[in-house]
Predict the structure.
Amino acid sequence: MSADDQQTNIDDLLLENRKFPPSAAFKKNSLAVGTHLYDQAAADDEGFWAQQASELIDWDQDWHTICEWNVPYAKWFVGGKLNVSYNCLDRHVLAGNGDKVAIHWEGEPGDTRTITYSELLVEVEKFSNVLKSLGVVKGDRVNIYLPMIPEAAVAMLSCARIGAAHSVVFGGFSSQALADRINDAEAKVLITADGGYRRGEVFELKPAADEAIASTPTIEHVVVVKRGGNKVNMVAGRDHWYHELMATASDNCPAEPMDSEQLLFLLYTSGTTGKPKGIMHTTGGYLTHVTYTHKYVFDLHPESDVYWCTADVGWITGHSYIVYGPLSNGATQVIYEGVPNYPANDRLWSIVEKYGVTIFYTAPTAIRTFMKWGDDEPAKHDMSTLRLLGSVGEPINPEAWMWYRDTIGRGECPVVDTWWQTETGGIMISPLPGATTLKPGSATFPIPGISAEVVDDAGHRVDHGGGYLTLTRPWPGMLRGIWNDPERYQETYWSRFEGRYFAGDGAKLDSEGYLWLLGRVDDVMNISGHRISTTEVESALVSHPAVAEAAVVGANDPTTGQAIIAYVTLRGGYEADETELRNHVAKEIGAIAKPKMIYFTPELPKTRSGKIMRRLLRDVAEGRNLGDTTTLADASVVNELQKRAAEAPSED
Ligand code: WTA
């Protein structure tokens, strides 16, 4: 290999040979089997999406153009009109499914609510009228800052019903983060709660909202849901209790047909630098994309499945696969308010058993945490109803995938590893269960309708090996831009490779064309000229029985350019053995990838959505002062690691 090649390719080190073809039992009822989705989409992707849009969505007016594509701006189903809230609610009630449970909600303290489609519709019609009475009109922005309670879905659907765009801010974010997002969106109304439950205690939201509103001149009204029961300060004329407004609101608010390209929501995502980006999603294309993917990727049988996605509604996963996808498909789902370890480490499994959950969708960070807690926790519960498992948010290490399949899925449930982003709106790369032969740790192939390619530094297509993941064709759920910042939109996603959307992720293709996600390209290390993905070294570490979770970073090194530093969390009952782990990595993927140093730690620093913050670990490893730590879920973790890095003997 020339020095040049070494510069331009991300090395492909980890070889995973296990394969799981779909079982006959799963295939029998699989929605994807026998549909020719792949062939149809390959022959005519726009025609394929149009077919999904007309089969899966109710339109008030037909579109005249399927897709208008002027790089980098797409419009889908142009001229069409529809209402998202109608599609998620009214049409199911009109079809006679009003008594079907939409949401089994479980509060952290153990209180529950069962909400049917009819009940949800009444609530949404009322709240739509409440919003109108507060002066919200089509085109306005409404901010939502709530715990995981049904009112979050009600608020979102009510905005959609009247054509206001929502901007949901995760309840764990600070008042400053909330204020920045409200100001960028120039929101008129804020919907919040007194507080919510987390780890057995009430966390206060209203005081943080109050602090934010002190610097958000556009907010005219605040609606407060009573949940935590904590005392709050209500400002007369500005602040209103949700239950009081709802008590007198009319439950008649017909859904208004919206233009297909009407702004449905903004969702802010933090970039590597600078202020958060308001990712824009619109109506017809987005709803088509999430309805279609929720149906086929999760093989949803609405008449019998009980679906559960453990994300928070404050993230895109909550928007697309708790609110819009499942409700549009008329699914019955579980929504849980709290943390997975309250009152004990088996809380999620007790919920699976209680509601007979059949489809379970969570994140690798959660799966690795469950591994750490041990196999006894799921063993306490009958989880035989589970038939399909999903993963999203980070690359899933092959061993975590195997554990998930074996220990949670009894070795029978297919695992769908779904790659996508806030910007893509919906799932892009994933197996279709029943149709795809799975490989542990691979997101497999672009779903029908999506075109992805791996390219090298120069933008040339790579057919085998590592590179950058790009998308080559517009898709219905794609972001329509960054709110108020078209240049940044162009620059961030469309400037690196001409005519291609660049997602920021590395990926490799194996000899059978399977895609393996390698993490953010900012995380790729350069060791003596070899470009090694952190994901592969982490997966090698996690394949050792002692390791539950690992984070790997490249730290500056005078000899090798960068040196591999690993942070490792052990599984219960195992002892730290650095030499053993270093040798294990050498055996799995080669001596070049052997970590120079391994730190053992009970926790890894993560963002609030559960992604490992390698940037911070790099700062720690290189002895730098920490930059922005505001998105960190638990700051004490890094302080502890910093202390230990300072005490560590210098390596030779
Ligand atoms: C990462 C979450 C590997 C990726 C829906 C992406 C993944 C970022 C996967 C988007 C996956 C998400 N395998 N990496 N299955 N899913 N990612 O916007 O780096 O919170 O770019 O959307 O998460 O994160 P976001």
